[in-house]
Structures are given as structure tokens and as C-alpha cells.
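User: Predict the complex.
Assistant: Input components as received:
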Amino acid sequence: MIEIDGLFKRFGTLQAVDGVSLHVGRGEILGLVGPNGAGKTTTLRCVSGIIPPSAGAVRIGGFDLHAQPVEAKRRLAFVPDEPRLFDYLTARDHLRITARLYGVADGAERAERLLDELELGLRKDAFPSELSRGMKQKLMVAMALLHRPEALLLDEPLTGLDPAAMRRMKDRIRNTAASGVAVILSSHMLHLVEELCRRVAILVGGRKALDGTLDEIRGALPAGGRGDLEAIFLKTIGEDDVS
Amino acid sequence: MIGVIIRLQAMTLRGRVVRSLRLLRQPKYLIGSLAAAAWLLLWVGRPMLRSGVEFEPPGFEMVRDEMRPVVQMVTALVTSFALVLPWLWPWGRPGLRLREAELTLLLQAPLTRRQVIGYGLLKSAPGTVLTALILALVLGDGLRGQIVLLAGLLPLFAFWSLHSKWRAMLSVRERESPAVRRCLWLVAGAGAVFLLALAGAALPFVRSIVASTPPDFGSLVHDLSARAWPPLLRTLLLPGWLLTAAPFARGPAETALAGLPLVLLAGLQLELVLRSRARFEERALEWARRTEARESAPRRRAPGGSRLMRRWQVFGLASAGRPEVAVLWKNLMRVSRLPLLRGAGATAALCLGLGVIAGLLPAHTLVYTLLAVAGLVTAGAAPLFTATWNNDLRTELAHLELVRTWPLPAARLVLAEVASPALLSFLLGLAGLGLALGGCLGAVLAAARGTLANVPLAPAGSAMGVGALGFPLLVLVGAVPLLAGASFAMSALQNLATLFIPAWMIRAPDANKGIAAFGRNLIVAPAMFLGFVLVLVPGAVLLGLALLVQRFAGVAWSAWEFPLWGLLGAAPLFATGGVLVVLASRLWAHLDPSAELLEIGR
């Protein structure tokens, strides 16, 4: 569903993404982890069409993002790490415009349902400035799910959520994937990635250092990896002696 | 510690300037900056540096010295009112104007109260210095004169600024202390008496000046200089005169002497503010939040509006239909949630009502003329208003992570973005035309009722083969396509420029502050105006040619041709706008916002 082949992104002299290739199938959740500046957000921005890659190809549901951007984007949803909503639109307005942009036939009913499910039912007519960080995050998720995307890109989706909301969001991500959606989840919360993702890709310095299931990654480490994702991650980035 | 915070401010400023300078590595920004610098140097800088009198009207230099005492008296009068009025009505100012981030940092830092207030005062100092500097550059005569004038203006502005801070701190303190409140009431009473006396003394003098109505500017100055000012007025103006003496002084020594009391008074006020016991923190925080909310969402309905208003929509947006309409809907909602049809109906009724009322009341010809002229000026300026709605790609760039993921072909998205301000400008222009028509209708009604002898446009109408009301009606019909075309072309130009030089055009809270933004606007605003004039040229040429051809063919112009002329003039505007939209679509499709907007890899 999501095919990234040889993705490069250069900013002046900085090679932010260096030949990353990733494939995510229907119903699969891929965890994208890496230290700060590893190129995770840049990769997601390239895959969602926000910035053009310097080289490489991205296909969503078989549609090339460069050649058929509208078809590709119609199947895609992106939740950025910072929820930048329109200050002058209410929560309901945000879903209204999303429904029209993506041509969701049952947009109004689905919007109401999503707002209720994400505990925003009582804040439908609130402006973003009246919502907490977590509520804004939920609204972004509601907008992303409204048009039933086939590919979902999540950049730090649990930031700002309380523990109960985190639990519900995790269930929602799991259920969304179970319904056949390909998900890429980028996060520094390694326990979350370990809990939700069947496969993990570790980016270091713009390059894909490791990619596979946790067991495959453990096996790929030079001295044989042990322990959880955090231990593997630290070993991969060369910080395994950090106590 | 305060030194560290000031250093932080300086570093922030330096960061902004460096960020702007880095843009110059791209040829388009470098060329734009060089062109703007040349323009500023040629038209503003050179005359300003050579002599401050370059801007003055012909013959002004002869009366300049003669005018000095008169101008100083008038300045003293204005200063007296400006200084006393805040004591009568403080306008709910915050004690200190600080940002929320600054307050959070300052209030938890190990600083004394005096240091925090000192920082707040210091923050407004650059503005004071810059204003004095600009005025000195513009008004000073030569470099020496400019320096002397700056030396005179600085203590005056410092005094003024500190006075306003002192008053603001007192209005905070007033809420906490009944004794201070009583004192302020007394001061306000004294101030009111003073202003009444001043007004009482000034009014007969002003009346006598108006009655003499000198025929030209020179005579007015001679008259004002020769006239004896009433002793009471001179006495009442003495404090204001002393306060404003420094900028009017001749030579450095006189300036220093006149500025000394001001410096002492400013020092006294500084100490009063620094020692103030007012709990300014809450008011400052309240002001900071209000300001930041206003800056982040200009023109939107303030949160807290009624539930009904929050549910208003400019028009109903169904889930099915052309997706680009959603972009238009969203952009219109940024300006107002008022339903479009309801707004249009109310405006039409208002224009019509104004005309009918003016027609039924015994009004002067000037009323109808004013209505018509105001309406026509509004309609003529409406296309330029596309720059003020802030509801197109300029604001969209702050939401790139949302907008760039929308499944819309570039051309349709750009067209919707262009249409948003264009539609609002078009509607504003229509309202203007409606007002003008209202004025004409009023005149026709008044003439029919016999309260007006001549309808102003009747001769022009009859010369072109139509009646007094038919003429403005046909003008209106002819102006509609021109208005639509000009608004569309102007908006298209603006959006194309946004995609070409996004870092200079973006409208976002953090991007529109500081000296860098000021400089950027100095470049962008005249360039956009020039672009707009150029966009108008093809339509004007085509229309002019058609009129000339008709004239040479010996066919008389008729008012019935106005709609056709309108279409003829509008066609090139729409064509130019269309080309600009196509170009902008290509830029949008290939836009890489990484460095200029998302600020990565810099």
C-alpha cells in the first residue's frame, strides 16, 4: 500500500534522507524510529507530498505521488507532530471541510460519530484556541480518519494525550490497521512502537539502519541483540553503553 | 540577570535579521532587495540625507522660520490635550506590554521587581528611538540639523512614553488602592477643568482665524504669526510649550537648555514607574493573551461568541460537490462567518435606504455627491483590498502540513485561493457601487419632490442619451465586470508573488514582526502596487483604443455602451489573471517549502 523506493532529500549540503526504501502492506503498522535529526519527519513529509523528494519514488495504493498526486493523496492521511489547525474554524468546521475535500458521502454523520468517539462531542463548536493540546491532536486524528484512508502516516500521535486517551488512541490505531489500512507510526516512545508495530525501521543520519520485525532486527545486530526495542535502538545508534 | 535577558532579546533580533539575510542567497530575494534598496535610496534616502526641506511645498522655506512659533504653539496645544486626556480616560491600558513568553520567563527568574519593570520599559525604548530618528531624518535640515533635532526629540518622546507608562501603572494601582483612586479622581477633575479652560480660551481664537480665511498658505502663516495670541491661552499653553521647546530650539546649546527640564521630568517619571507598587502582572498577561490571540487569527469571530454565531456559515457546505469550494468556504470564513446572502441583502437594503432617506429629507446637493463619491472611491479601491483580507495562500502557507496533503489538482487549489480575496473585494466594490447608486437615487427622488433644483448627473446622462437615473445604473452595470476582473487579476498577482517569494509574502504570527518584516513590507507593498498598475494596462489600452476608433468613425458615445466597454476592459484583466493562475499552479505543484517556510536545513 505504501511503497517508498530510494528516497533522497537534500537541504543544501545536508543529506536529510539518504536512499530510504520502505514497503508497508495493508493492515500493517510500521514503526519509524530514530534519534533527533535522523530524517523521520522529513521522510513522512516527503511521503505525504508536503515537500518534494530530491530523488526516489513514493507510491500510495499503486499511485505515484509525483505523477498522480491527487489519486495518491486521496488514499492518504497524515497527522503531523504539531497540530496546526485553522484558528477561525470550529472543530465541526474542520471535519466539514475535510469531508468536502475528500468527497466523503456520509461526511456529516461520520464526523459526528468520530467527534463522539474521540471525546470531542461536547466541543464541536469550540475554536482551536479553546482546545487543549490533546484535544487538538484528537481533532487532527478525526480529520485524518474521516475519509477512510488506505494509508495513514502518524508523527508522534500520542503527544499531549492523557493516559486513558493514550490507551484509546492505541486501540484506535490498532483497529484502523486491522481494517486494512497501512500505517507508518513515527515516535520516540519506543514502548508504544514495540506495543503496536509488527515491523520497525530505524533511521540514523537519514539512512535506514535496520528494518524488520523485532526478532529480525535483533538477529541483524552484529553481536546479536538482546532486550527490548530501547536496548536495540541504543545499540543501533551506538549509545548502548549509556546507563 | 537583566543583562542576560536583554542579551536574549538582542540575539532574537539578530536571529531574525540573519534569517532574512540568508534568504538573499537566493537570486530572487537578492535582486528584489537590491531593487528595493535602489528605490529607497533614490526616492527617499537621497533627498532626506541632503536636506530635510526637500519634501516641503514650493515657497515653504521662506515661511518656515516664520512658522516656527506658530507650529510650536499648536504642538503645545496638542501636547496639552494628549497629556491630560489619559488622566480623564485611561483606556484600560496594561501597566507593561510584555509577551506571555516574556512574562513566564521574567516572573520565574530570580529578578527584583525593579528589574522586571526596567526590562518592560527598555523594551519600548527602540520604538521611541526609531520614531525620533525617522522624524529627525525627515524634518531636520542637513546632517547637523538632523542631529540637533534628534537630540531635541529624544527627551520629549522618552518623557511621553514614560508618562504613558506611569499613568498605566497608576490605573492598575487604582484598582488596588482606594486612596490612589481618590487621588486620581481629583487629578481627573483638575485635568477636566484645565482642558475646559484651554478649550474655552482656544475656541474664540480659532473662530477668528477661520473667519479671516486667508486666500493662500503664505498669508495664513503671516496672519497667524502677526496675530496676538490671547494671554489666557498663552498662559495655559505654557507647560505644553516648555515641554515641546527642545525640538523647536535653534542650535545645540538652546536644545540642551530646553531639553534639560524634560530629561529631569523623564528621570522622575522613570523612578515613579520603577518604584510603583502596582500589581501589573495580571493585566500584562491578559493583554499579552489578547494580543497574541488577535495576531494569530485576525478578523475571526472572537471565541466566546454565541453558540448561534459559531454555527453560522458563509454558505452551507455539503459533503458532496467540487472540493475546491471547500477551500473558498474556509477562506471566506476567516474574514466573517456572516452568511453571504444575508450580508449582501443587508448591504443592498442599507444602500437603498440611505438613498431613499437622503431623497426624502431636505438635504444639500453635497450629501448626494458625497454618497456617490464615497461609493465610487470604495469601488475603485476595492481590488487593492485583496491585500488586506489575509485569506489566501499567504495565510495558507502557515498550514502547509495540512494543505499540501489535500487531494486537489494544483490549478483548482490556486484558483480557489485566488477567488477568496477576489470575491470579497468584488463584493466590497459592489457595496461601493450600491452606495453611489443610492446617492444618485436620493438626488433623483429629491428632484422629483422639488427639494433639489438640479440632479448632478442629469446633464451627463442626457448628453449620452439616458435619464438621470439610467446614467448611474448603466455606469454600475459597466463597472461590475471591470471590478470583477481587477479583483481577480490583483488576487492572482498576489498569490503568484506568494509562491514566488513565499518568505516575504507569508502571513503568520511569527513572520510579521520586527524590523525585518518592516523592511520586507517596504519592498513588497510598492512592488505589488506597481504590478497591479501594470496588470491594468492591457485593459485600459484596449478600452482606450475602442473609444478612439469609435470617435474617429464618427459614432457618438452612448451610455448604453457602458456594459460593453466594461466587458472590453475586463477581458484582458481576466485573461491576465488566468495566465497568472496557471503560472502560480505550476509553482505550487513544484513548491519546496523546506528552507523558506518549514525552516529545515538552514
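Residues 1-50 of chain B form one domain.
Let me know if you want any component modeled separately.
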